[in-house]
């Protein structure tokens, strides 16, 4: 199974998320993570969708079907090496009296993670990184006990030097050829 | 910064009428009707109800400009709009209320998207303050129709109406056509617009840019393959008729002397009389067209999508051939069959560009190959079916007699099942744009309302619909619509008291375990007469000629029931999962 990151640029309208995800549902492709936010251009949303699939061909077909949604401006399918990507994770870790103290120096310097909230009985640690880095930290912090853990899902930017406007002709080239 | 500024490829541009404007403020319902008029809509198929009542109140004022036809069930409205669209090339329009009214359209919408039929469905919705409250007759029809519409949109503000309706028509009609659903809340229908009504046709959209003219290098690559081919073979799909490319297709096949076969929805795009026409493709298509698909060296698919009913087992389909795929929808390229030379664009534009690049050629020996298979098929299947010695009438002879009597010029609307396959096999289409049927979805009950819609769309043409006894009972209520309109739709029921195609499969693949396929039918003629439609039952071969003559001579709607052999099978047949070359003759 190969990871694919699909970036979809759409008009920001009600129901567009549903129009995109139903294309995955119909083809029984599970979405590993999904993030949506407005781009540098007002009214244009950017979806970052991560899936795992054994067939590149199936992913290419999926991308073409997404392109058919009227509100979609452009779609790109990427392999991990094509993109810079990251996600954020948050960990709620208990700090009861008498427990082994957290090694803040290791957390900061080795894992590049930060405590963003202190409570009498727990702390919240924020960790930014790839899935692998986050799970490395997960394994490190696990002995303290994890009260809650959440990941944001991947955000990704292509390594190509082009801007979004430059991309669109490329999109035309790619999907209409 | 504007997107796509540097793009030059534009969608088809409609002729540019002056925007329609009214100085006084009007409500959403009037805005809707005026927008429809501005889009050139003359006919609406609809059914009123609570959440669409303000629109119906407005239509009352526009009866001079807009012909609203009251159907008997919303599914009938959807199929009638499809039939209308298919024959006229215009966008079919249907109107329904919220909840059950809207959900009753769903089958027709699903049918329209898979058969690329332009349609705009306008449905009422509960007031916007009630959305999401499970209000009376509230259904999330936007959610329901996302996977089966080309586009859908919910209007809650009357000011949006002109722009959205213009967009709806543009999307439905341009590129690969399809259905669009517009959901309008009741308050948006009732409220006054806050600004004067102004309807401007939509000519382009930021995000949706269908390609019409293909790229020159793609056309050149296709031309090279075709010019080098020894055994080229053309597959004609629905896209040819949608693009109006019948003339260009003739030029192509004549210049390069290529045999051409048709998909189900491509039928009638080439006359059966043309020497290069070699027949119909697919599961119940002709013997030669299927077998020789696996012997050609270049397969040229025009406006078709390699449906599984065409390809049989894909892994054994035309593996020896290079594939040229001319298709307007880029998502169809490589979807089923890999294309060596994809040409993305409108069939007419693509063929116009392709023809000058083709060499004049002769492929007589190759074309003669098809004749050999025709001779076998003729002896084993066609002749016994057309000149049977059985007591009961066979479907084939009904269709062929009808074909002869109408000289292959009628609009034929077939429902779904054995009679549909028999119609496709035995009606000899000689005029383009003459065959309407539910191809992709296989919607039983499609034909009666679709034939009515076709007659509305082409009142000067003879419209004959061929329906099975099972199908007929699915939308039988539309006899009321036809009777009320008085339009002379000619209806033939091929009655074998069976769900024939399912029965055939049960016979061939389920050891004749006939599971729920036998029908105890009503007296169809009495039913027709109850609706005020004249009819006749033909049970004997001697009576067939006169019965058809009488039906065709009628200037009113007419129902002809023909009692046909009960357990007839459609052959040839490519069983599911088999290879096209392994087509069975018995």
From TrEMBL, chain A:
<keyword id="KW-0100">Branched-chain amino acid biosynthesis</keyword>
<dbReference type="Pfam" id="PF10369">
    <property type="entry name" value="ALS_ss_C"/>
</dbReference>
<dbReference type="InterPro" id="IPR039557">
    <property type="entry name" value="AHAS_ACT"/>
</dbReference>
<dbReference type="InterPro" id="IPR004789">
    <property type="entry name" value="Acetalactate_synth_ssu"/>
</dbReference>
<dbReference type="GO" id="GO:1990610">
    <property type="term" value="F:acetolactate synthase regulator activity"/>
</dbReference>
<dbReference type="InterPro" id="IPR045865">
    <property type="entry name" value="ACT-like_dom_sf"/>
</dbReference>
<protein>
    <recommendedName>
        <fullName>Acetolactate synthase small subunit</fullName>
        <ecNumber>2.2.1.6</ecNumber>
    </recommendedName>
</protein>
<keyword id="KW-0808">Transferase</keyword>
<dbReference type="GO" id="GO:0005829">
    <property type="term" value="C:cytosol"/>
</dbReference>
<dbReference type="InterPro" id="IPR054480">
    <property type="entry name" value="AHAS_small-like_ACT"/>
</dbReference>
<feature type="domain" description="ACT">
    <location>
        <begin position="5"/>
        <end position="80"/>
    </location>
</feature>
<comment type="function">
    <text>Catalyzes the conversion of 2 pyruvate molecules into acetolactate in the first common step of the biosynthetic pathway of the branched-amino acids such as leucine, isoleucine, and valine.</text>
</comment>
<comment type="similarity">
    <text>Belongs to the acetolactate synthase small subunit family.</text>
</comment>
<dbReference type="InterPro" id="IPR002912">
    <property type="entry name" value="ACT_dom"/>
</dbReference>
<keyword id="KW-0028">Amino-acid biosynthesis</keyword>
<dbReference type="GO" id="GO:0009097">
    <property type="term" value="P:isoleucine biosynthetic process"/>
</dbReference>
<dbReference type="GO" id="GO:0003984">
    <property type="term" value="F:acetolactate synthase activity"/>
</dbReference>
<comment type="pathway">
    <text>Amino-acid biosynthesis; L-valine biosynthesis; L-valine from pyruvate: step 1/4.</text>
</comment>
<dbReference type="GO" id="GO:0009099">
    <property type="term" value="P:L-valine biosynthetic process"/>
</dbReference>
<comment type="pathway">
    <text>Amino-acid biosynthesis; L-isoleucine biosynthesis; L-isoleucine from 2-oxobutanoate: step 1/4.</text>
</comment>
<comment type="subunit">
    <text>Dimer of large and small chains.</text>
</comment>
<dbReference type="Pfam" id="PF22629">
    <property type="entry name" value="ACT_AHAS_ss"/>
</dbReference>
Automatic annotation (TrEMBL), chain B:
<dbReference type="GO" id="GO:0005948">
    <property type="term" value="C:acetolactate synthase complex"/>
</dbReference>
<keyword id="KW-0028">Amino-acid biosynthesis</keyword>
<dbReference type="InterPro" id="IPR012846">
    <property type="entry name" value="Acetolactate_synth_lsu"/>
</dbReference>
<comment type="pathway">
    <text>Amino-acid biosynthesis; L-isoleucine biosynthesis; L-isoleucine from 2-oxobutanoate: step 1/4.</text>
</comment>
<dbReference type="GO" id="GO:0009097">
    <property type="term" value="P:isoleucine biosynthetic process"/>
</dbReference>
<dbReference type="InterPro" id="IPR029061">
    <property type="entry name" value="THDP-binding"/>
</dbReference>
<dbReference type="GO" id="GO:0003984">
    <property type="term" value="F:acetolactate synthase activity"/>
</dbReference>
<keyword id="KW-0460">Magnesium</keyword>
<dbReference type="GO" id="GO:0030976">
    <property type="term" value="F:thiamine pyrophosphate binding"/>
</dbReference>
<keyword id="KW-0285">Flavoprotein</keyword>
<dbReference type="InterPro" id="IPR011766">
    <property type="entry name" value="TPP_enzyme_TPP-bd"/>
</dbReference>
<feature type="domain" description="Thiamine pyrophosphate enzyme central">
    <location>
        <begin position="219"/>
        <end position="354"/>
    </location>
</feature>
<dbReference type="Pfam" id="PF02775">
    <property type="entry name" value="TPP_enzyme_C"/>
</dbReference>
<keyword id="KW-0786">Thiamine pyrophosphate</keyword>
<dbReference type="InterPro" id="IPR012000">
    <property type="entry name" value="Thiamin_PyroP_enz_cen_dom"/>
</dbReference>
<dbReference type="Pfam" id="PF00205">
    <property type="entry name" value="TPP_enzyme_M"/>
</dbReference>
<dbReference type="InterPro" id="IPR012001">
    <property type="entry name" value="Thiamin_PyroP_enz_TPP-bd_dom"/>
</dbReference>
<comment type="pathway">
    <text>Amino-acid biosynthesis; L-valine biosynthesis; L-valine from pyruvate: step 1/4.</text>
</comment>
<keyword id="KW-0479">Metal-binding</keyword>
<dbReference type="InterPro" id="IPR039368">
    <property type="entry name" value="AHAS_TPP"/>
</dbReference>
<comment type="similarity">
    <text>Belongs to the TPP enzyme family.</text>
</comment>
<protein>
    <recommendedName>
        <fullName>Acetolactate synthase</fullName>
        <ecNumber>2.2.1.6</ecNumber>
    </recommendedName>
</protein>
């Amino acid at each position: 199974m190969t990871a694919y990151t699909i970036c979809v640029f759409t008009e920001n309208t009600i129901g567009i998320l549903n129009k995109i995800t139903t294309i995955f549902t119909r083809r029984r492709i599970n979405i590993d993570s999904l993030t949506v936010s407005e781009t540098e251009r007002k009214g244009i949303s950017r979806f970052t969708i991560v899936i795992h699939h054994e067939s590149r061909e199936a992913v290419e077909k999926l991308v073409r079907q997404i392109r058919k949604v009227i509100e979609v401006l452009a779609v790109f399918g990427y392999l991990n090496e094509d993109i810079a990507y990251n996600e954020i994770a948050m960990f709620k870790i208990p700090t009861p009296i008498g427990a082994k103290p957290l090694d803040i120096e290791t957390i900061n310097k080795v894992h590049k993670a930060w405590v963003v909230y202190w409570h009498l009985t727990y702390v919240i640690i924020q960790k930014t990184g790839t899935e692998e880095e986050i799970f490395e930290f997960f394994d490190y912090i696990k002995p303290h006990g994890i009260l809650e853990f959440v990941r944001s899902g991947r955000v990704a930017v292509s390594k190509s030097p082009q801007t979004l406007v430059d991309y669109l002709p490329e999109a035309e080239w790619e999907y209409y050829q | 910064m504007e997107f796509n500024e540097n793009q030059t490829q534009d969608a088809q541009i409609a002729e540019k009428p002056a925007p329609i404007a009214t100085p006084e403020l009007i409500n959403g319902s009037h805005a809707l009707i005026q927008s429809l008029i501005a889009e050139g809509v003359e006919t609406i198929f609809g059914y009123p109800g609570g959440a669409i009542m303000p629109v119906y109140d407005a239509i009352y004022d526009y009866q001079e400009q807009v012909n609203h036809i009251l159907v008997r069930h919303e599914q009938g409205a959807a199929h009638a709009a499809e039939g209308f669209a298919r024959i006229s090339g215009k966008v079919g329009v249907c109107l329904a209320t919220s909840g059950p009214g809207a959900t009753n359209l769903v089958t027709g919408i699903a049918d329209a998207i898979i058969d690329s039929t332009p349609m705009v469905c306008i449905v009422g919705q509960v007031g916007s303050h009630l959305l999401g409250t499970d209000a009376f007759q509230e259904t999330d029809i936007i959610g329901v129709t996302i996977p089966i519409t080309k586009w859908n949109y919910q209007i809650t503000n009357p000011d949006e109406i002109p722009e959205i309706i213009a967009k709806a028509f543009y999307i439905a009609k341009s590129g690969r056509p399809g259905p669009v659903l517009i959901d309008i809340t009741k308050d948006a229908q009732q409220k006054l617009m806050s600004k004067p009504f102004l309807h401007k046709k939509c000519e382009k959209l930021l995000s949706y840019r269908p390609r019409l003219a293909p790229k020159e290098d793609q056309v050149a690559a296709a031309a090279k393959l075709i010019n080098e081919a020894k055994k080229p073979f053309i597959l004609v799909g629905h896209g040819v008729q949608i693009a109006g490319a019948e003339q260009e297709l003739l030029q192509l096949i004549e210049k390069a002397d290529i045999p051409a076969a048709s998909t189900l929805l491509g039928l009638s795009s080439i006359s059966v009389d043309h020497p290069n026409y070699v027949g119909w493709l697919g599961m119940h298509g002709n013997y030669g067209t299927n077998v020789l698909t696996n012997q050609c060296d270049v397969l040229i698919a025009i406006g078709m999508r390699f449906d599984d009913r065409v390809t049989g087992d894909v892994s054994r389909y035309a593996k020896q051939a290079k594939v040229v795929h001319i298709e307007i929808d880029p998502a169809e390229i490589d979807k089923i069959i890999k294309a060596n030379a994809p040409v993305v664009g409108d069939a007419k534009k693509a063929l116009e560009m392709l023809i000058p690049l083709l060499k004049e050629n002769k492929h007589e020996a190759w074309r003669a190959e098809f004749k050999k298979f025709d001779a076998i098929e003729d002896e084993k299947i066609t002749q016994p079916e057309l000149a049977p010695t059985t007591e009961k009438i066979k479907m084939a002879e009904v269709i062929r007699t009808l074909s002869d009597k109408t000289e292959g010029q009628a609009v034929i609307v077939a429902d779904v099942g054995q009679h549909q396959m028999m119609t496709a096999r035995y009606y000899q289409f000689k005029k383009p744009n003459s065959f309407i049927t539910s191809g992709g979805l296989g919607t039983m009950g499609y034909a009666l309302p679709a034939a009515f819609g076709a007659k509305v769309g082409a009142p000067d043409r003879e419209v004959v619909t061929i329906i099975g006894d099972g199908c007929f009972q699915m939308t039988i209520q539309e006899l009321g619509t036809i009777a009320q309109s008085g339009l002379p739709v000619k209806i033939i029921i091929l009655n074998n008291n069976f769900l024939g195609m399912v029965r055939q499969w049960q016979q061939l693949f389920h050891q004749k375990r006939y599971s729920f396929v036998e029908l105890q039918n009503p007296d169809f003629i009495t039913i027709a007469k109850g609706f005020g439609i004249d009819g006749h039952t033909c049970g004997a071969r001697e009576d067939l000629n006169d019965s058809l003559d009488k039906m065709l001579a009628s200037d009113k709607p007419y129902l002809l029931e023909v009692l046909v052999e009960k357990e007839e099978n459609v052959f040839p047949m490519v069983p599911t999962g088999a290879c096209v070359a392994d087509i069975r003759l018995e």
